[in-house]
Specification:
The chain is built from 6 helices and no strands. The N terminus is likely disordered. The longest helix is centred in the first third of the chain and has 31 residues. By secondary structure, it is mostly helical. Keywords: Membrane, Transmembrane, Transmembrane helix.
Length: about 170
Amino acid sequence: MATHPQQHIFSPSKGAEPPDWGGLLRRAVGSGTIAAAASGLAFALLARRRTGSLASAPNATSHVLWGESAGRCHEVDLRHTAAGVAIHHASTVFWATGFEWLLARRRPPHPLTAAAAVTTAAYLVDYHLVPTRLTPGFEIHLPARSMGGIYAALGAGLALAALMRRPVRH
């Protein structure tokens, strides 16, 4: 009986280099930033329709630090808005790292497939696994039906970042 060495999903083929983890993390910062901008715009615009303020949803994200009072702040301020934007950006870069990891595999999925998988995982973790204090906070001002649009914007931002890196075919 022949034995086969256990292969890691990143096992390089003969002559191939292992993945560049520094490059993967740099790409995650780039794709995470684009995805944070897309989903941040989505939740800010949706919150403005409900509260009259673009700052309501990013401020609510700062509930991780400041508790329930963050959901009552509708004005732009350093304490809530900057913290909420930073938390959202950091969490989006976290999810983008998983996205970029999928794309770094020897047989990567299409960026749209990877984005759909990662955003589905993000939603499930954000709203079904973590304690309420660690949820994104958008739900303070937005109905559940808005979450699909926010996570779709997140996925679109991830996929767009990866597609923008592809060489142009002539």
